[in-house]
Amino acid sequence: MAVVDNETFLRFRNAVERKYFRTRSVAVYARRLGYSARTLSRAALVATWVFAKAFIDGHVMLEAKRLLAHGQDPVALRGPHRLRRRQQLRQILPAPRGLNPGSVPPKLSPR
Q1: Residues annotated as region Disordered (predicted)?
Q2: Which residues contact 13 (CB under 8 A, 6 or more apart)?
């Protein structure tokens, strides 16, 4: 088993912060950083107690919450994405497990 140093995770974290809106694939980050996906997962597990994919998904959700919580612009105009349509938000946010992207609980539907 290879020893994973803290620098590996720091490079991974910085890459996720810069590119989270373009890709959520551990394999893509691994290729760009010159590591294997398993090495990034081990580094994330040692540093954060979650695997690399869960770390990326958590970062995406944190950024989505920040975009929704701050600012006066409509959701479609916030953040680095500058969404042209609200439907594009589905490309950034993963669907909750067990639900398809079109299903929204009735109490959350805008009326």
Answers
A1: 90-111
A2: 47, 55
